[in-house]
Amino acid sequence: MTLLTSLARLEAAASGRARPLSQVRHRRLAGQPLVIIPLTLAGDPDTPVAAMTGTSRADQHLLAVPQPRDRDLRLGFLTGLAQIVLGYIASRQHATEVLPATRNHEERRRYADAPQILVPNRAARDYLGLLGRSTRFQRTDGPFPVDPAVPALGKWLTFFADSADQPGSALLADLTSLLAEHWASGQSPLEDASLAAQLAWIDPPPGMTGLQAALATEDPLRCPPAGPATDPGFDQAILEPLVRNYDRAAQAGSQAGTDRAAAEITSALRGQLEPTWNAVGDAMSLLRALPETAGAARRWATDRDSFTRFSSYIGDGGLPQPRRDHAATAAARLDRLERAQAAYDAERALEDPFILAELRTAGEAFAGEVVSAQPSRTTTTTAGRTILRPRFTVRTDDPVRIEPGRVLICPTRPGQRIRIADLPRTGTDAEVVLEVIQGMGTPAKPKPGAVPPLGELVSYTIDPGYWAQRDFPPVDQTPWTHGGPPVRQRADQAEEPQS
Amino acid sequence: MTSADSRLDRLRGSTPPLSHTARTVAALTANPGCARRALMDAAGADKAVIAAHVGFPQASGASQSPFALARGAIFETQVKTGGGADLIRLLRDRLRLALPEVSYSDLESVGGNTDRDVRYQRTRALLLRAARHPDQAGTLYDHPLLKLQVGGHLAYLEPDVVAFQIGGKFHVIEIKSFAVIDGQADEESVAAAAMQAAAYILALQDLLTAESLPTGAVSTDAILVTPENFSRQATATFIDVRKQVSTLRRQLARMTRIDLLLDALPAGLTFDLAPEPDGNPSRSPGDLAGALEAVPARYQPRCLQTCELAGFCRDEARAAGALTVLGSVVRDDLGGLDSISTALALASGSREPSADQADIARALRHARNLSNTLSGGAA
Amino acid sequence: MQEPLDALENRIAELRRAIRSALAAGEDERLRDLRAELRRAERSWEALVTPPDRPEEDRQGLASLLPAREQVHQALTLLGTPAAPKLISAVHEAFFAGRLAPSRLASLRRDEERSYRAAPGARPYYLCPALMSDLLSPARALLCVSTWALEQRITGPLSPRVDFLTAAIRIAQAAPSLSGPGTASPSAAVERLLRRFAMNIPGAGPADPGGNLSSEAIAAAAQAELDIHSAQDQDDRAQAARRARQQLSDAEQLFGTRLTAIPGTGTAPR
Predict the structure, then answer these.
(1) pTM
(2) Shortest Cα distance from B77 to chain A (angstroms)?
(3) What is the value of ipTM here, to two decimals?
C-alpha cells in the first residue's frame, strides 16, 4: 500500500466516509458479465450448496443442492452450473474480428468479445479455481462417469482462475478488489473483504456514517455473509434441520417429501444469497460510473487473444491443464508476477494521475521543474557515428528511488524514451539529469520540442517496457493463456471420486 | 495455590475457570503483547460471555458450523476404523513403520469409565511403560489424555492419536478435515494445526520430564492427516514444529510471571459477572466495561478472527483514534506513529514533528500535497 | 456362509469334545466353565429351532423385510469378527437385500442387553459388544454374536488389525470372482468395500490406483500379514478369556463389565 492510499484511509477513518482513490478504470467492465455467487457448506470446497448466477439484475438463477453430501445431487448441481457457464461462454463466441497481417504476424481472427465472470470477493475467486481443479480431471467413462459438461467446466474455470492471476486481466475479477482500487475505507483491509462493509463505507444510507453502516453489516441476521462459506448460525438454526427433513423424506422413499424439503432449502438459500446479489449490482453500478482508460481496451484485447487461443485449444479436444507442481515453479512464478505487476503500475501511471501520484510517493516516479537544458548535446558511438543525446535537468523534491541508467517515459510525451544520466541529491531535493535516447531525431534532423522548455513541470515514470524487454520468462513457464506452449500431452489419472 | 493463582481467581470472579483445549492453548500465542488477553486466559475467564455482556457478542467462527463439526468427526472416524487402517498404511509408507507394529489402544474410556483423571492415569501408565520398555510398547494410542500447566491451572489436552515405535519416538498425529490439494493447504489451517500439535508435544515432554525420562523421545515432527485432493483418501503431511514448541513454551513461561501484570492492576479489580441465583448477571455492563478498560489491550484487526473480545477492543481503539484499527500495513507504513489524528496533523503541517517523526512527517506532507493537487484538478 | 444353526451345532459339538478331554484330564475348573457354556449353547439351539419372532416395526411405522437385528446377524456371520456399525452396514449393503441404516444400530446394543437380562437365553442369539482384553469392559463400537466363542468376542491390542485382515479375507471369499471372464461384474458396493481393504493391505491392491481388483490377491495378502500377528493376538485373547470365565457372571461374559474403580489401586471390578 502506498503512502497516498494510507493517507486516504486515515482521512476516511477521520471523516467516517470512504475517500476516492483512482478515478478511472483500468479494466474493462463487460456489458453483460456473468455474476457467480457460490456458497459452500461451512467453507468446504468439496460440498457446494448453492450458486446464484446471472448476466443482469433481473436475470437471476439459483442452483441449489438440498443434500450436499449426496453425490448425485452434487453432480446435478455441477452439471447445471456447467451448462450456465458454457452457455455464457458460447454466447461470447459469435462475433469475430480480423487482425490484418503485420511484419511479425500473419492475418488472424480473434473473437470480438470475451466472457467476463464477476464474483463478490477473493475467496469466491479462489473457490472457482478449486472447483476447476476438482472437476477438470473427472472422467466421462469408467465406474463413476460424469456429464462431459463437467470436465469442460473445470478446464474453463481453471483458465479463468489462471487469467485472474495476471495483473490487468479482466476475464475473472472479484468486486471487493475492484472497489478497493477506487475507494479507501476507514477500516482495515481484513474488514474490507466484506463486500457489504465496503459498500457501506462508500455509500452509507442517509443518516448514517460509513462506519456505522459498516458495523451494521457485521450482523449476519441482517446481512448474510457473501460466502463462499455459509454463516454458521444459519447452518445451525436453519439449514441443518431442513437437510435432516430432506434425509428423513428420502429414507422413507417419499418423493413429495423430498420435493417439499428441497423447495424449503432452496428458498432459505435464496434468502442468504439475495442481499449479496443486490450488493454486487450496487458495486457494478459504482464501477460503471467511472470512465475507462485506453489501456483498459488494450488489455481487453489481450484478454480476447487469450480467450481465442483457449477456445481453439478446447475446440481441438484439449486435455485438462496439468496439476501444478508448486514447489518447483513457485519462485519463477512469483518473479514473473512481480514484473507483471510493476509493468501494470507503470502503464497505469501514464493514464491515471492518481497512480502517478502514488508512484511518486513511493519513489518510483517523480515530477518537478526543468531547471537547465542542453538540447544540442551529442556523443560519438563506438562505431564513430555522431548521435544526438540531448540532456536536461529536473529539480524535484519527490523521494526518487530509481537508479541511474533506468529508462523513463513522460505521460505527455509517450513517443520519447528518457534515461537517468545522474541523480545527485542535496538534502531532500534531487536534480535529476535526464538524457533523451529515443524520439529526439538526428543531428541533421533534430525533432523540435524533444527537450521540454525551462520552467515546465514534467513528470516521469519507469518505462513499462522495461519489465517486458529484459529476461523473457522461459517459454515453458509462460502460462499458456498468454502465449506459452500448448499443454503437455500427458494422460492424467482420474481421481477417486467421492462416494 | 500461589498468591498469583488466588489473585487470578479473584480477577475471574465467581464462575469456575474455563477448561483449556489445545486450540485455546495455541491461541495464547496469538497476541503475546496483549495484557488484557493474557490476564483473562491465565485466569480462565470466559471471554465470550464477558464480551456479550458488555454489548459486543462475537459471531461464531466457521468452525462452529454443525456441518464443519460433522465433517471433522466423519473423517476422523474413517481414518481410525479397522484399527487405524489408514494410519497404519500412511505410517508404513512414509515412516517405514515395521509390519508387526499394529497394536491399537483405545484410551477414550477406561473400562467404560470416561472420568478425565482415570483416563489421564491410564494414559500416563501406558505411555511411561512404552518409554521405559520400548519392546513392550504399543503402536497407536487413540484419544490419549495428557495434562499441561497453563497459567495457574492444569489443562487436559486430548490429541487425536499418539503413535510410538517409529524410530523409538512418540509422534503426535492430528487428523483434520481440510484438504491438502496438490501438496498445498490453507495456510491458516496448517498454522493452527501446527500450534495445537506443539501443545500436545509440550504435554508429552512434561510427562517424560516429570519421570526424569529424556524428552528427545518425543518427535517435534507432527503428522497431519488430511484428505488428499478431492477424494476422501487420507494423506500424511509432516510439519516441523520446533519453532512452535519453543514459542509456546516461552508464552507459558510468561504466564507464570503473571505477577507483573497483576501488580499493575487497580486493587479489587474483577471481571466477575456476579450472577444471581437464577443465573442472570448482576454486574452492570458499564461497570464491567470499566474493569476491562483498566487493563491495557493491544488490538489489531487479526483479533477479530481469534479472540471473542475483539469487538470491544476495536471499539475502544477506534474511540481513542488508534492507528491500529487500519491494519498492520498502514501501521507499518507510518512506522512510529500510533494515532490517526497525529498522522493527519503531521500531514497537514498543523503539528511540528519530533525528531524521530521528521522523516515520516515529511513523507506525509509530500503525500498530502500530491493529494491536494489531485483533488484540486479533478472535481 | 454358515447358517446360524450350523454354526451353533458346530460349537456344541466342539464343546462336547472339549468336555470329554477335560474329564479325562481331571481339569475340574475347566470342566465347570465348559459345561456352563454348553448349557448356554443348547438353550440357544432350542430357541433357534422354534418359529421366529414377529417382524419388528421400525421407527417410521413401516414394516421392514427383516428386523434390524437379523440383518446385523447376517452381516456379522459373514464377517466372523467383531465389527463396527459402519462396516456391518457396508457388508449388508454389499451382500444382502434390503438397506440397513447405521442409525438403526444405535439403540440395538442397549435393547439386546435389556432383552437378555429380562429373559436370559430366550433368544437363539444376542448381539453383544466385543470385550476389551485388559479390563473386560464392553468395546465402544464393536458388535458380535453371543453364540461365538468368548475368545472370538474379545479384542486385544492387536485384534483391531487382525479383525481388519480377517474381514478382508471373508469378504474377498464371499465376493464373486472380480476379474474372471464370464462372471457377472460385482456390484459397486462390493467393489467399494473391497477397494478400501485393498488400499490398506500391502500387496493386496492393483498396481495402479484405477486398476482391477483381484479378490484372490486381497485374500492372499491379508493372510500373509495375518500370519505375522495371529499367534500373539490369539494368546492375548485366550488369556483374557480365561480371566473372564473366572471373574465374570454369564451376563457380564456377554455384555462386559464396567470399571468403577481406579486401575492399579487393587480394587477389582464387581
Answers:
(1) 0.83
(2) 16
(3) 0.89
